[in-house]
Specification:
By secondary structure, this protein is mainly alpha-helical. 60% of the residues lie in helices and 6% in strands. Strands 2-3-4-6-5 form a five-stranded mixed beta sheet. Helix 1 packs across helix 10 and helix 16 crosses helix 18.
């Protein structure tokens, strides 16, 4: 659910550092100051997620319910969950007790989420919702857990019900926009984005984000509305231009081969079909907002691979390289889910080159040139503002550092590294924990290896 992910993350950008000659040490540059805490973030922090469990209702089961409440408050979560599961049917047949049990399940879920993430909390929120299916707090907690786990139960019917129960909440509309854009209903998705924006009037930053996303969705709808589409088992391909049967066949063959081959290397396959849009040469950059040096891109906002058709009908090798590269980005995006921001761009791009088997002549030429090294720490954020000359160095470093990582530690360890990032670890902490070296040591060892290769 790409729109919701972006809504929660916003955009993290870092200024391009001054480049240094290879081998130079660079004085650390302080990171940009954090964005001011938005009023929406404050509102989110203060939003009601926990239900009042301080007063146990006076029922014949009061003592039993009080004991479970106390276990939750003492963070004895396993014991509390066991006791909730073992409640006799007579407790749930009493309306007052049933409502309080729903409260206990909800609050248990919050504690489980705090300790172990939403994977551990979904069941508790679901149990609460089964008992109290008209409580907006419980259903909102369940909706967020469903979203983060990409649970198909977060469907249109569920979201419509949530909109009625929580009419002032932007999240249900944003999640509905996600569902609609995945179904290629971009016009309807934009309408729900507008409704989400209406519900965050108190926060100019969130309104600005939603306005930008809505513009992007509407522009995509305008551009793609006249396109023809063809589907295979795992992809939907849209083509801007004259019908060309051989192009359709080539694109879908390349993608399905990438699905099998790269999926096996990576031990991961997409959770849903991936949209691929082939743009006319003169509309690609303007429509996608991509840098002038980009051959293609994976758009995480709309969940689409987008490439220009220039060369697509005449150079199958180029087409395969671009499609495979962007497919890896789509695969990584799907793999990382809600925590995709934890994956540094240098590793994202490096894995795309390594797993796709890219052969870039520009990188071979750059290896023999006068390289100005960019520290990996500066290549963790967006590369969109990089000039063409710096972008070549960035890709060269990403490819080299990732190849070094794979060759020295193996893909199994890389997989563990991704799991750690998915669990909200920083790249520095993940490297320390999985490679048993510090981030600084990894960079130094990689640079030494890089120097040996160049010499």
């Amino acid at each position: 659910m790409t729109l919701v992910i972006g809504y929660n993350l916003f955009l993290r950008s870092a200024p391009l550092p001054q480049l240094a000659q290879f081998g130079e040490t660079i004085e650390p540059v302080a990171p940009p100051p954090p964005l001011p805490q938005s009023r929406a973030s404050e509102s989110e922090a203060k939003s009601v997620r926990i239900l009042d469990q301080s007063v146990v209702p006076p029922t014949p089961h009061e003592t039993l319910l009080e004991a479970i409440r106390d276990e939750i408050e003492k963070h004895n979560l396993s014991l509390a969950e066991t006791k909730l599961k073992e409640l006799p049917p007579t407790v749930l047949s009493d309306v007052t007790s049933k409502t309080f049990v729903a409260t206990l399940w909800n609050n248990l879920g919050l504690q489980q989420e705090r300790l172990n993430g939403t994977r551990a909390s979904v069941r508790a929120f679901k149990n609460a919702a089964d008992l109290e299916d008209s409580n907006p707090v419980i259903l909102m907690n369940l909706a967020h857990a469903y979203w983060e786990q990409r649970n198909p139960a977060l469907n249109a019917e569920f979201l419509m019900k949530l909109m009625k129960l929580a009419p002032d909440e932007p999240f249900p509309h944003l999640a509905m926009a996600d569902l609609l854009q995945e179904q290629d209903e971009l016009q309807e998705a934009a309408k729900h984005l507008d409704q989400a924006a209406d519900r965050v009037r108190h926060d100019p930053a969130l309104q600005s984000y939603l306005a930008a996303v809505t513009t992007k969705v509407r522009r995509a709808q305008s551009v793609e509305s006249h396109m023809a589409a063809r589907s295979s088992t795992h992809f939907v391909v849209k083509f801007d231009g004259e019908e060309d049967q051989s192009t359709w066949i080539s694109v879908l063959e390349i993608l399905e081969e990438a699905y099998r081959e790269i999926g096996q290397k990576f031990s991961h396959f997409p959770s849903k079909p991936i949209m691929v849009v082939l743009h006319a040469k003169d509309s690609f950059q303007g429509t996608t907002g991509s840098p002038a040096w980009a051959d293609g891109l994976y758009d995480p906002t709309l969940g689409r691979i987008q490439i220009p058709t220039q060369g697509a009908t005449t150079d199958r090798k180029w087409l395969a390289s671009v499609l495979r590269h962007e497919y890896v980005h789509a695969l990584l995006h799907d793999r990382m889910g809600a925590n995709r921001e934890a994956l540094p761009t240098w590793l994202n791009e490096g894995l795309a080159m390594q797993l796709a088997g890219d052969a870039w002549p520009d990188l071979d030429q750059a290896m023999s040139g006068n390289i100005k090294v960019i520290p990996l720490t500066y290549l963790e954020g967006s590369w969109g503002a990089l000039p063409a000359s710096a972008s070549t160095v960035a890709y060269l470093e990403a490819n080299s550092a990732t190849r070094y990582l794979i060759e020295r530690w193996g893909m199994a360890t890389v997989d563990e590294l991704l799991n750690a990032l998915q669990a909200k670890s920083t790249i520095a902490a993940a490297i320390q924990d999985k490679l048993f070296v510090s981030y600084e040591q990894f960079q130094r060892q990689w640079l030494e290896s890089f120097e040996r290769i160049r010499s």
